[in-house]
Design goal:
Length: 629
């Protein structure tokens, strides 16, 4: 796992700026740094050594004939097979790394080689023969990759803050990205939160010619595998995926929450690993958020070396003001805090950890899928009637601040009811309604809203297998790629820990794509196939556990321990000085929450996360640039 930075089609030297920008990525690669200027391309790299710990594998890395150079972030799980194929074709290797397999595959197959990689990756590859550079990202966007077209060339980086340190990058907030973030709680690719940068979409590559022309192409082709015996095939595929993900030359462990996804990964790892398996969990003193009885039960049953750290509220509360620095781009997901603390704890013992992320989006694990299954049978007049009663529900139902409380779920259900499938899903999963934005924002852009609507519809239009597949593809394309995986990457890399996700192995993706809908969702039962598999290995209390998020009691904290932070950061004077949100609207959200009239935790956290990011990166950077000028 590493951090990359550089530029292609550059019009003037850039090596000095690259060295400076790499400091912003030091947390991603504490084991080494390298940068090289070739023709009009600069490749920079920060290394976290996982496979081939020798300095021969340091990057930038060349093929044996020095025709192709690369800087690479990630892991290629089928690299041994790829190396064997390349050797059989007469290509040489000078290292034992997976990185060299990428350049040699490219020498064999060119652009077609990208779809042959099974792993998580983001890399820049430069071909000295054609003088073309390629930015490439893995199929589901597990690893991040930003790029910024500027007057001096196309720059790229693993994280946005490295680009924001470059004067040529426009760091003004992008209106379309901001409106998307307010509704979704994350910034969807290809947008980034600033005008001067974009995110490369998963499964795509950006080809940059020496003269500066660039174009994006999709290389990833979904190839569903239709199984005659799904239960048997799932067991075989998860074991193979976990075994591939266990390849490492450094200590490795598994995150264990007590849910079925992480439990399946941990149980598989214990069986296929040649070494004892270490698992890592966090226990909380807040009862509605604590899962210790579940993960301790699983750990005892499967026989792993369990590590648990008990945390009080103060551990997470201290992290809240740091969210802007931690993420590099706004993300309103409260589980970033326990995820960071878990990664930090695991890093004391291991350098790599496996997690169960991705299973919900492949196998239909979220409660919203049940809600869609119910609502799709409602006539339009009933939907309008229920949606119209949301105001009464907010007035009459007492407000609770526990994790996924009953009143919260009912109110969220009513608030999001509308006939359009994707828009209903966005409302249920996200925070602000699009109709709220003209009142919240100082400058509302209707055209930006239309662009977002068109973007959100794309995955559902590509799926032709019914309503459930449309929603799953939407979540895979946006919520998983730009929300869940961003959280996991930033939280883990802030601790220099690599996290791998076996459920997003290429073979598992093909298997899930080929399953019938009723193997994923059946009446009130989610992840049907996974629960059937788990029932043969774990107690019923594990196999049939409802979905429980890895969250934090923000609703309560905003009324107590974190209220001073809100009063400072979101005060009317400071909100007005930024010129982005309307102070009166923000103040009403705060006062309604503090008084107990409404549970506005999501709206408040959304605004707080953006504001902490903005104050740390954009406002501070603008002041620094003004002084430099």
């Amino acid at each position: 796992m590493c951090g990359i930075f550089g530029g292609a089609a550059l019009t003037r030297p850039f090596l000095a700026e690259t060295t400076s920008a790499l400091r912003a990525l030091a947390h991603r690669g504490p084991d080494g740094e390298g940068a090289v200027e070739i023709d009009n391309v600069v490749l920079g790299h920060r290394r976290l050594a996982i496979i081939d710990l020798s300095h021969e594998a340091d990057q930038p890395l060349w093929d044996a004939r020095r025709q192709v150079a690369i800087v690479f972030n990630g892991e290629i799980y089928n690299y041994r097979e790829l190396r064997h194929e390349c050797r059989a074709s007469g290509l040489e290797f000078t290292t034992a790394s997976d990185t060299e397999a990428i350049v040699n595959q490219y020498l064999l197959y060119g652009e077609r080689s990208f779809d042959r990689l099974n792993g998580m990756f983001a890399f820049c590859l430069y071909d000295t023969r054609t003088r073309d550079a390629y930015l490439v990202r893995d199929p589901f966007g597990i690893k991040p990759l930003y790029y910024a077209p500027t007057n001096r060339g196309v720059l790229f980086a693993s994280e946005l803050q490295a680009l924001l340190a470059i004067d040529d990058v426009d760091c003004a907030v992008d209106a379309a990205a901001l409106q998307a973030y307010l509704q979704l709680d994350f910034v969807p690719s290809p947008y980034s939160i600033v005008r001067g940068a974009r995110k490369l979409e998963g499964g795509s590559f950006l080809k940059i010619a020496a003269g500066g022309r660039y174009e994006s192409k999709r290389y990833f082709v979904r190839r569903p595998f239709h199984s005659d015996d799904p239960a048997a095939d799932f067991g075989r595929i998860i074991d193979k995926a976990v075994e591939r993900h266990l390849i490492s030359d450094v200590p490795l462990g598994v995150f264990l929450s007590g849910g079925i996804d992480s439990s399946i990964v941990a149980e598989s790892a214990r069986r296929v690993s040649r070494q004892p398996v270490a698992t890592f969990s966090i226990a909380f003193d807040e009862a509605t958020f604590d899962e210790s009885k579940y993960f301790e039960s699983v750990a005892r049953m499967i026989g792993v070396n369990q590590h648990t750290r008990a945390l009080g509220a103060s551990s997470m509360i201290e992290l809240v003001p740091r969210i802007g620095m931690l993420l590099g781009e706004p993300l309103a997901d409260g589980s970033i805090y326990p995820t960071y603390l878990l990664a930090n704890f695991a890093r004391e013992h291991v350098t790599v950890a496996l997690s169960g992320d991705g299973a919900d989006e492949l196998f239909a694990g979220y409660p919203t899928y049940f809600a869609h299954d119910v609502v799709r049978h409602f006539p339009a007049p009933l939907i309008r009637l229920l949606h119209g009663g949301r105001g009464a529900a907010h007035r009459l139902m007492p407000v609770q601040f526990e994790n996924f409380s009953t009143d919260y779920k009912i109110k969220k259900f009513l608030d999001g009811l509308e006939p359009a499938l994707v828009r209903r899903h966005v409302r249920w999963m996200g925070t602000f309604d699009r109709n709220d934005l003209p009142e919240l924002l100082v400058r509302y852009d209707q055209e930006a809203e239309e662009l977002l609507t068109a973007l959100l519809l794309q995955p559902s239009l590509e799926a032709d297998d019914g309503w459930l597949e449309k929603i799953l593809r939407t979540d895979q394309r946006f919520y998983l790629q730009d929300g869940v995986l961003v959280k996991v990457d930033r939280a883990s890399m802030a601790s220099s820990l690599e996290v791998r996700v076996p459920f997003l192995d290429r073979e598992m993706i093909a298997f899930a794509d080929g399953l019938r809908a009723d193997a994923k969702l059946r009446r009130s039962r989610s992840k049907v196939l996974l629960r059937q598999y788990a029932a043969g290995r774990f107690p019923q209390e594990i196999a049939n556990r409802p979905k429980k998020g890895f969250g934090a009691p923000l609703g309560r904290w905003f009324r107590s321990e974190l209220r001073p932070l809100l009063e400072e950061v979101l005060s009317p004077q400071r909100v007005e000085s930024r010129g982005i949100f309307r102070p009166r609207y923000v103040q009403r959200l705060l006062e309604d929450h503090w008084s107990g009239r409404r549970d506005n935790r999501k709206q408040i956290f959304n605004l707080l996360s953006f504001t902490l990011w903005y104050d740390h990166f954009v406002a501070k950077e603008s002041i620094a640039r003004a002084h430099a000028a």
